[in-house]
Amino acid sequence: MMKLSKIGLGIALALGLSMSAQAAEVEVLHYWTSGGEAKSVAELKKMLEAKGHTWKDFAVAGGGGESAMTVLKSRVVSGNPPAAAQIKGPSIQEWGEEGVLANIDGVATKEGWDKLLPKVVSDVMKHDGKYVAVPVNVHRVNWMWANPEVFKKADATVPTTWDEFFVAADKIKAAGMTAVAHGGQPWQDATTFESVVLGTQGPVFYNKAFVELDPKSLDSAQMVEALETFRKIKQYTDEGAPGRDWNLATSMIIKGEAGMQFMGDWAKGEFTAAGKKPGVDYICAAAPGTSKGFTFNIDSFVMFDLDNKDLAAGQNDLASTVLSPEFQEVFNLNKGSIPARLGSSMEKFDDCAKLSSKDFVESAKFDTLVPSMAHGMSTFSSTQGAIYDTVTEFYNNDKVTAKDAAAKMAKAVASATADL
Ligand code: GAL
């Protein structure tokens, strides 16, 4: 009996150890704290814990993620990075250069990610040819969200061009309502501004300005025209706009307190969380002049190299969960985005998402697919910050002329890129 129990104890210990060797506490930094966002990230927590790991939530509120990035930098500098963080676009290369990211090529190769992702996506997820990030979704930024009741009351029509926008906005304002729900924060100013640039100047100019950072495009009559159109929007916002969080602007559309919001489709996550139906309670429409274009914003998670094999197992399970068909569906249904994984069924998605999915493919075919400047897809964070600062200063200070702002933008971008 004694002998048997010793063997039994040995097996139990070995099993226990092997189980504990796999289980890890996975700390994840993100900034998904609004209603719709929180519901979405809860799905990831649920799926990771079903694999035996513990999810340590490292949520830093603040739309657009600037606050989260500040906190992350301090954690990494102090040698104590989380296991994973919501990092996306060219910033992945910046972090890759720091030599702090974990290589997740193992799980990527095993699962054939190169075949599961469009090349425009997989290229962004690699540093020195190795996967260091996993994509969560594809958000479309050039959306306009409209409340049909407000338009009906004002006898206005949902605009498809910027000229039509000003006609509709005047009607809504004349009817005593707020035409545009806006949050006066740099990233939100930039989100609206980039849709004005795409809608008034087109994708070729957009890419020259925000991807190539061509000084002759940044400081040009075209940029002046876009800036002037952009600032004209301010007269249609309410006095509560300065500093308002994006999801509170979305709730103004949900409650019929305003007619339109220019925001990426994470706003759809708020409508969904509020039980609202597209085409009934709200309208999703391309921002004026951009129906043939698609401004993409791909959320992703990087894994940090923690030199710990248990944690590495947890990180690999996190990466594998994120790209799984199940997660890609349930997360994006809640988040308002569309799956990053090729071949994902769109059956359960609403008409806005189906339009997004169709336009994503079409725009790639006709070169009208552009990376979002406002959401860190088109350039490094320092250059993005230079554009943010000049756009927001111009929007808030009527004494700054569009011509001056365009010149300032070109200068600020040149000095930000010179330092790279
Ligand atoms: C974007 C991010 C979205 C959403 C939005 C509002 O930059 O990619 O997932 O979080 O900010 O915070």
UniProtKB/TrEMBL annotation:
Key words, A-Z: Signal, Transport
Record's subcellular location: Periplasm
GO CC terms in record: periplasmic space
Primary location group: periplasm
Cleavable signal peptide: 1-23
Pfam families in alphabetical order: SBP_bac_1 (PF01547)
InterPro entries reported for this sequence: Bact_solute-bd_prot1, SBP
PANTHER family: ARABINOSE-BINDING PROTEIN-RELATED (PTHR43649), BINDING PROTEIN COMPONENT OF ABC SUGAR TRANSPORTER-RELATED (PTHR43649:SF28)
Function field: Part of a binding-protein-dependent transport system for a sugar.
Family the entry assigns: Belongs to the bacterial solute-binding protein 1 family.
Protein name: Probable sugar-binding periplasmic protein
